[in-house]
Design a protein that fits this description.
five-stranded mixed β-sheet; 5 helices; 19 strands; 13% helix; globular
Length: 309
């Protein structure tokens, strides 16, 4: 099932290219805002699944292209992101030690929203194509063998990054947690629709040009291992997101006016816009191309604008 927020955060399910409104079926879920609604729905989904399926089968919907799609998880309690979690198509000789960082819940944006490149001295702004795993029930100190029992579904996720900020070594918080730096969507797909999340093609385009193209089978630490490891650090709650990492080879600098699209197979296509009021420019290239030329640093150099060398 594909679950969607649309217009003024009405809740819907996707049936073909139609959005079927199911808001009146969840009025019993206590809520202050849509984040409470979706988290409550996820936690008690089996109470609503058959109702949603019946409503979706009625075909009484509106065209998807006629609504404003909102982020399907407007404010997760936790967003945990795996760091250096791919073997990079064999260019890494061994897995990096398992590691993660957190992103601010209010860094979330949705389809057709805008990632804003702030007036800060970042050496480059990038966005990492990632599969997001959504937790379905409270998950604390679980084993790898039971980890998939705690998965509700999956989403597309772009991990925005402002790299190279001073002081050196003070990295993840100010690089990753910025406003608008976690685009997700267009909808939340329940786990039974994805037969093997560990063999999923992921593609990211910038202005129609394919920049990232890899598969989740290249993960260094599997989805189940990530759930096990994180859940031994802190409890995961319904609606929490684990971003499973990226293959860095296709990373490239985002520029003002760019249109970025991400598609993890089976999860729809997430499209966002990029805005940089400073109109800075970087070399239009990927990390892989620079590596093949033996160039340092791995990311593209800034060419023009404020903070350029």
């Amino acid at each position: 099932m594909k679950i969607i927020f649309f217009d003024d955060f009405r809740l819907g399910v996707l049936s073909g290219d139609q959005v079927v409104d199911v808001s009146d079926k969840v009025t019993d879920i206590p809520m202050v805002g849509p984040h409470d609604l979706i988290n409550g729905l996820i936690e008690n989904f089996e109470n609503y699944r058959s109702v949603f399926e019946a409503v979706a089968a009625s075909g009484d919907g509106v065209p998807l292209d006629g609504v404003r799609i909102r982020p399907p998880l407007p404010r997760p309690i936790n967003i945990d992101c795996m760091a250096v979690n791919y073997m990079e198509d064999g260019t890494r000789s061994e897995p990096a030690p398992i590691n993660a960082f957190t992103k601010a819940p209010n860094s979330i944006i949705g389809p057709d929203d805008t990632m804003v490149l702030q007036d800060i001295p970042a050496t480059v702004f990038e966005g990492e194509a990632e599969l997001g795993v959504v937790i379905g029930k409270r998950c604390y100190q679980v084993s790898e063998a039971e980890a998939m029992d705690y998965v509700f579904g999956y989403i597309n996720l772009i991990d925005g990054s402002a790299r190279g900020l001073p002081p050196a070594g003070n990295v993840f918080f100010q690089m990753k947690a910025r406003e608008t730096f976690t685009p997700i969507g267009p909808y939340l797909v329940t786990k039974e629709e994805i037969s093997d999340p560990q063999s999923l093609p992921i593609k990211l385009w910038v202005n129609g040009n394919l920049m990232q193209d890899f598969n989740t089978d290249d993960m260094a630490h599997s989805i189940t291992r990530c759930i096990e490891w994180i859940s031994h650090v802190h409890a995961l709650e319904p609606g929490d997101i684990i971003a499973t990492g990226t293959n860095h080879g296709g990373l490239n600098p985002f520029h003002d006016g760019d249109v970025v699209e991400l598609e993890c197979e089976g999860l729809g296509r997430l499209k966002i816009n990029i805005r940089d009021d400073l109109k800075r420019t970087w070399e239009r290239t990927t990390r892989l191309k620079r590596m093949e030329k033996g160039l340092e640093p791995p990311h593209a150099p800034q060419l023009t604008g404020k903070y350029a060398p």
